[in-house]
Amino acid sequence: MICPHAGYMYSGPVAASAFYELAQDGKPDTVVLMGPNHTGYGSALGMMRQGVWQTPLGNIEIDTQLADQIKHETNIIDADELAHRYEHSIEVQLPFLQFLYGNSFKIVPICFLMQDYDSAVEVGRALEEALDATNTVVIASSDMTHYERAETAAAKDQAALKAVTELDAKRFYETVEAQNITACGYGPITALITYAKGVCAKAELLNYHNRGDITGDHSSVVGYAAVNFRK
Fold first, then answer.
1. How far is Cα 36 from Cα 57, in angstroms, rounded to an integer?
2. 226 touches 4 (CB < 8 A)
3. Strand duo 146-148 + 221-230: pairing
4. Which of 43, 60, 187, 192 could lock onto 112 through a cystine, CB 3.0 to 4.6 A?
5. Within the chain, how many helices (H) and strands (E) appear?
6. Residue 230 has what pLDDT?
7. Which ranges of the chain have pLDDT less than 70?
């Protein structure tokens, strides 16, 4: 899935549409969560490979075995806790998952400070190899265009999302660059498209809204999209 990560009052309804689809599909053993690094702390591609994450709903254990398998498939991911210490893009997904499954699932969090095309594709291919025959869901956490007029943001985001739903990672990335689309998690999305295409998934745009739909101010919005990928 692609899910946004803004404040719940703004992007929560869009994210919920993706988690509603997930809820129809049974319970995963592990969720791989990929999000952008907004803070600049830690490694360029930082994964936590052990320990727990705590929310007000309880503790979620990291799937060390799967984390190590992903890391084994690529040499560009570092085991690094610092990248996650002040980052919100992954943690805001956890209460949705805990609402659905309690604490009976594990996670593998990967934080992208480095979001170049080749690195994102390499991560996506590593997921394809490591996740084979596992009961795993992959989530790319990203908001779309930031702080532009609603109509401009929507036009840009729809161009990018068309490439997403057609599973064209290269065109998605090139669209983001050519149109200066300020989607913060474009690297995680590129990795997810690569993985989804590798496992012959199909994509569906479930929902798209913007901050102005909540605040009433459409002069400077952030776009939010929910996309479902299904084998």
1. 24
2. yes
3. antiparallel
4. 187
5. 8, 11
6. 95
7. none
d(CA 119, CA 45): 9
Q: Is 127 exposed, middle or buried (0-12, 13-18, 19+ CB in 10 A)?
A: buried
Q: What is the pLDDT of residue 182?
A: 98
Q: How far apart are CA 115 and CA 187, in angstroms?
A: 4
Q: What pLDDT is attached to residue 127?
A: 98
pLDDT at residue number 137: 98
CB 190 within 8 A of CB 172: yes
**Hunting for tokens 């799937």 — which residue is that?**
63
Which of 21, 45, 7, 220 has the alpha carbon at shortest distance from 139? 21
Residues 112/34, Cβ–Cβ less than 8 Å: yes
Q: Mapping DSSP to helix (H, G, I), strand (E, B) and coil, where does residue 32 land?
A: strand
What's the longest Cα–Cα distance across the chain?
A: 48
Phi and psi of 137, rounded to 5°? -110, 140
Q: Tell me the C-alpha distance between 190 and 209, whole Å.
A: 21
Q: Are 190 and 110 in contact (CB under 8 A)?
A: no
- How does pLDDT run across 108-125, given as a tens digit for each residue? 999 999 999 999 999 999
Q: Which tokens sit at 220? A: 């400077």
Is beta strand 2-3 parallel, antiparallel or unpaired with respect to 136-141? parallel
- Domains delineated in the chain: 2-230 (3.40.830.10)
- Please choose, from the candidates 120, 152, 153, 136, the residue with its C-alpha nearest in 3D space to the C-alpha of residue 35: 120
As a residue count, the chain comes to 231
